[in-house]
Amino acid sequence: MTLTSEAVRQVPVVLLRLLVVVLVRETAHPRYQSTEHLLPQYDFIIVGGGSAGCVMAARLSEISHWKILLIEAGGTPPPESYIPALNFLLFQGDADWKFHAAPQQGALLAYESMLPYPRGRGIGGSSTINSMIYVRGNRRDFDNWEAMGNQGWSFDHVHRYFLKLEGYRETSNHTGKYYGRDGPQALEGKRWSSPAAHAFLRAGEQLGYSIIDPNGPEQIGFSLIDLTGRDGMRWSAAEGYLRPALSNRPNLHVVMNAHVAKIHFNEDNRAVAVTYLQDNKERRVAATREVVLSAGAIGTPHLLLLSGVGPAEHLAHHHIPVVRDLPGVGQNLQDHPAVAGLIWTTNKHSSFSPLRLLNPVHLHRYVQDRQGPFTTPVGTEGNAWFPSETGDPGWPDIQLAFVSTTPAIDFGLTSRQGLGFREEVYLDYFSEVFGQEGFSLAPFLTRPRSRGSVTLASHHPMHMPHINLNFLSHPQDVTDLVKGIRHALEVGGTPALQEHGATFNKRLLRACAAHGGHTQKYWECFVRHMATTSYHASGTCKMGPSHDSLSVVDHRLRVRGVAGLRVVDASVMPLIVSVNTNAATLMIAERAADFIKEEWRSRRRRSPAKGAPARNKSQGLSSDSR
């Protein structure tokens, strides 16, 4: 039996999944269920039950006389999703769409030709499988959105929506003074950190940086992460928004394991219904006010294209009748390229080892007190941001993630395939440090210049779309990531980390060794081989002014050239936020819900419908949503 055989690879996975029974036995998790008897029509149909879709379902159902339907392609969150440290079991599992990115020219050269591209599938979406990192974004990200022609999206406009969604629970990590306290999205600081993670903070201080709260006034500095969690457990958007709404709102219906295949338009190009596939049957349901697409930066453009909204030439190629020629649908795909493979070995017990999850002491501590390593996702423990060398120094172009383990720790049993490394590259580059504890420093490019696309592979709704990341197609992206590598090497060499025996893996990547040891050319080659996705897909239904030929939605997220159709998810970002994307996605949905309420109330005041019911006070998750 070889090292990479599927049987061997599954041994630790099966063992850890068995432990879930022990870990969650005393916790009553919500059982999301499809509504038994659906109506033939609803006021609003929301497609996608991920982060944005859960927010939209909860907020729109606050209007008690509106009938809301949420349609989700997946099912309920798997039990292991509630345990933060078991996040690595979720990729390529039942809660993952199992997308793959297409082969690249000049990038991703160390990875399999079809790189795994995880996206959450099921109630809660990617907030159910992600690393739970909560950071809003630099205020300049949002000011720039407005400068690009999107009125009302500056930081001063969106800040109150972050405060509205946040339910921050103060811990000893920092004061939490920058956060909202009463929102549905529970947030808390880390309950457990590796010794090396604390050394990472000291390393920043030794280099002259401050320890910061990344959601504070400025972003330059070092920090540990905040988590979308409560009491040591994952708190997805489904937990925060959807579960409370379903508990007492008969006007909200949910249908799961239902794959939306098409949006239907009438002769006036108004979205009036959707068709979905469930149990091998095709069903159709009508929307009297709007269809809201919250299927994510991959799923939303895919569904628009299947429905005839997108570049006319591309639609014609797949024999799809054109409803509206919108060249920008599926274009402008952005992600944060992150360089893998910069690893340091450490003294024993300084960093994180998966073997800790098999320790009965930690199991007992988690079950009894919700403390210890099970309370934090495997992966990034801290981040650093450095002043930009060009332009505004307060708007960093590099985020450095401190990951308290390495891809070599498990001998490739799960990490190689999960990350998508080609076997020969993985074995050659990492074999000398197999099984050794250590950490990785991964530079992220926060504002990449390269743009990819999501297009149709076929006109069949069940076929996966074609995802072209187009990484590193702009040469400046390579230059900037090499700069990020220099930051990583500087941090890794600090006395604070040397105290833990931090030793850099100096083995040269075989494909780049001809350029010599750690020269500029070597690192440029290293970036083209080892840079990979950070799973932050966004931008594929760009928000922009009418004169922007690639804009898909206006500043109130209405799809251009049609009626009754809105996009609410990360795909509307005109430029990706310069941090992890989940927090901004929640904010976008909170803002969009208010747009819808304002517009439909305004229409009602202007032309009340005959026999319309009296206006009711909304029953909200918070009073300011009324």
Automatic annotation (TrEMBL):
Region (Disordered): 600-626
Binding residues for FAD: 260
Cofactor: FAD
Signal peptide: 1-30
Domain Glucose-methanol-choline oxidoreductase N-terminal, first and last residues per copy: 120-143, 296-310
SUPFAM superfamilies per the UniProt record, alphabetical: FAD-linked reductases, C-terminal domain, FAD/NAD(P)-binding domain
Entry keyword set: FAD, Flavoprotein, Signal
GO molecular function, one term: oxidoreductase activity, acting on CH-OH group of donors
Compositionally biased residues, Polar residues: 616-626
Nucleotide-binding among keywords: no
InterPro entries, per the entry: FAD/NAD-bd_sf, GMC_OxRdtase, GMC_OxRdtase_N, GMC_OxRtase_C
Coiled-coil boundaries: none
Membership in a protein family: Belongs to the GMC oxidoreductase family.
Name of the protein in question: Glucose-methanol-choline oxidoreductase N-terminal domain-containing protein
Organism: Scylla paramamosain (Mud crab)
The organism's taxonomic lineage, starting at the top: Eukaryota, Metazoa, Ecdysozoa, Arthropoda, Crustacea
